[in-house]
Design the sequence.
């Protein structure tokens, strides 16, 4: 069995992206609802509820209000969720239940192009979600412009990273229920322990080291500096981390899907 | 332009130690219909999946339109229509939407795609349903839609994997009629089927496969003549007398549990010789069919 070898990827992957976009547009109102309402709920809960108990959060020498502190986390989590859930549950439904990939593979598209199109679409959903969340938090004056605009291209990079690892899981899970495992062991811990809702500085050293290996930690770092308008050279390391993450998991996703579908 | 649309030499496909397709050779000439018959697991689907580059081949060589499938699969797929066994229409889109989307995979511009799609829906009798969701279609309509979806790129080769399995007779006959029309217009067809009527009606050339190998190849009437003769007499609970008679006269026959099937040629006068003398209510006299050939050559054991 051929496991690696050259991948045949051309611009044609855009056809798969187009397919997903045209389905998305059909119910765009419903699709817009989640990224629109979710940050509102969070802001409400955290500013009125939790924010009343926590006066200030120290961050790199400055004291931030709790709402300002968590705003970048809302953006980063939206980026992660949209790509991850699109390329796990939704991609799995198209692959396994709808046999959409099989149908496309009878046309001039390769499997690698189908998978690339799916991941590019997941990343696009991350960008759409980030734009909507950004709109909401901007209305409350919680972000600094123009720096915050860089969050949109960052959302694409983050979307590729989370979409690639999601697609890798899609290539190896035996059934759709098994996605509970990566959600429970990977996504939820990141949601809580990536410097999202409390600073990592207060944690023991081992926990800080562990958090530094998680992709969301780097994404939150980036969105936080962009929201606060405090750009610094260290952010390049965060970007480099995400790029390397993509370079590892994108080929792994292709290999896993090829092993699964090409027989 | 080459005369052979498909040319397979020592084509082989194995999954681990299991050999699904075992060094087979065949050709499909332009404008003809080649039918692959065989019990479940004979290697039919594995064979056609290699033809359109869906499954990589394990060994041998395979050219379609004179192009090597290994390197030229993309060019081959541009001129090939594939009707897969499973119903894989896009449930998120309408009837028309499914065809328009599929056309995009072949780089057909939107306007041309819509015109072509509407024409195909007329052709297959789904015009009035063009705005329906595909989840509201009956099984027969779904198959018809999948068939015309395979025609959206004006293919030179149409690949059909059990095109009418599970359909009612009306839908089946309508699909056959459309396929006959396409053939008369010069389309080359490679089809797999379990349906003997389908095979003998659509295809001028048949291959019967079993356990990954080609058992026999020929046109339907020739195969029937050679392997089942012309007339068949089936007797339920045959008497001892009849069995002795058949054996002593050297008739071609199959003895089953409670049934004897006797095959006769033009000169055997089966019905007069046996029908009149040994049959009461327990006999059926009929013409030999492709199904007789199929069962004689691949055996009556259940597969899988």
Sequence:
């Amino acid at each position: 069995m051929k496991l690696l070898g050259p991948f045949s990827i051309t611009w044609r992957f855009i056809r798969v992206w187009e397919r997903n976009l045209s389905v998305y547009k059909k119910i765009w109102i419903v699709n817009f609802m989640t990224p629109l309402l979710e940050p509102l709920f969070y802001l409400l809960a955290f500013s009125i509820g939790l924010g009343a108990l926590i006066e200030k959060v120290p961050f790199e020498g400055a004291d931030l209000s709790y709402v300002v502190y968590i705003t970048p986390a809302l953006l980063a989590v939206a980026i992660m969720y949209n790509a991850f859930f699109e390329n796990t549950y939704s991609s799995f439904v198209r692959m396994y239940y709808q046999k959409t990939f099989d149908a496309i593979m009878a046309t001039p598209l390769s499997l690698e192009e189908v998978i690339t199109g799916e991941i590019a679409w997941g990343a696009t959903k991350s960008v759409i979600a980030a734009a909507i969340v950004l709109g909401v938090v901007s209305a409350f004056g919680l972000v600094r412009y123009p720096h915050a605009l860089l969050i949109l291209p960052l959302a694409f990079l983050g979307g590729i990273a989370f979409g690639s690892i999601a697609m890798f899981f899609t290539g190896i899970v035996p059934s759709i229920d098994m996605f509970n495992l990566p959600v429970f062991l990977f996504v939820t811990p990141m949601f809580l322990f990536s410097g999202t809702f409390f600073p990592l500085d207060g944690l023991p050293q081992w926990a800080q080291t562990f958090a530094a290996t998680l992709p969301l930690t780097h994404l939150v770092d980036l969105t936080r500096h962009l929201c606060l308008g405090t750009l610094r050279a260290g952010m390049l390391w965060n970007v480099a981390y995400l790029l390397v993450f993509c370079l590892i998991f994108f080929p792994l996703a292709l290999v896993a899907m090829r092993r699964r579908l090409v027989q | 332009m080459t005369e052979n649309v498909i040319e397979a030499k020592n084509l082989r496909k194995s999954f681990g130690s299991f050999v699904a397709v075992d060094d087979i050779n065949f050709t499909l000439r332009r404008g003809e219909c080649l039918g692959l018959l065989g019990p479940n697991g004979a290697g039919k689907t594995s064979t056609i999946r290699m033809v359109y580059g869906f499954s990589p081949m394990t060994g041998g060589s395979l050219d379609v339109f004179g192009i090597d499938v290994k390197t030229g699969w993309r060019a081959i797929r541009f001129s090939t229509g594939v009707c897969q066994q499973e119903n894989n229409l896009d449930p998120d889109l309408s009837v028309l939407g499914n065809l328009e989307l599929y056309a995009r995979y072949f780089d057909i511009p939107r306007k041309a795609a819509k015109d072509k799609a509407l024409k195909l829906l007329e052709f297959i009798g789904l015009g009035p349903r063009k705005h329906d969701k595909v989840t509201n279609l009956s099984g027969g309509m779904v198959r018809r839609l999948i068939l015309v979806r395979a025609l959206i790129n004006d293919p030179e080769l149409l690949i059909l994997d059990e095109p009418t399995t599970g359909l009612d007779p009306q839908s089946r006959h309508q699909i056959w009629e459309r396929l006959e029309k396409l053939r008369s217009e010069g389309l080359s067809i490679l089809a797999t089927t379990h349906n003997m009527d389908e095979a003998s009606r659509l295809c001028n050339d048949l291959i019967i496969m079993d356990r990954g190998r080609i058992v026999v190849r020929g046109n339907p009437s020739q195969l029937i003549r050679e392997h089942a003769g012309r007339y068949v007499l089936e007797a339920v609970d045959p008497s001892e007398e009849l069995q002795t008679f058949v054996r002593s006269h050297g008739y071609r026959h199959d003895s089953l549990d409670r049934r004897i099937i006797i095959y006769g040629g033009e000169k055997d006068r089966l019905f007069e010789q046996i029908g009149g003398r040994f049959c009461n209510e327990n006999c059926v006299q009929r013409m030999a069919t492709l199904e007789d050939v199929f069962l004689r050559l691949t055996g009556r054991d259940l597969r899988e």
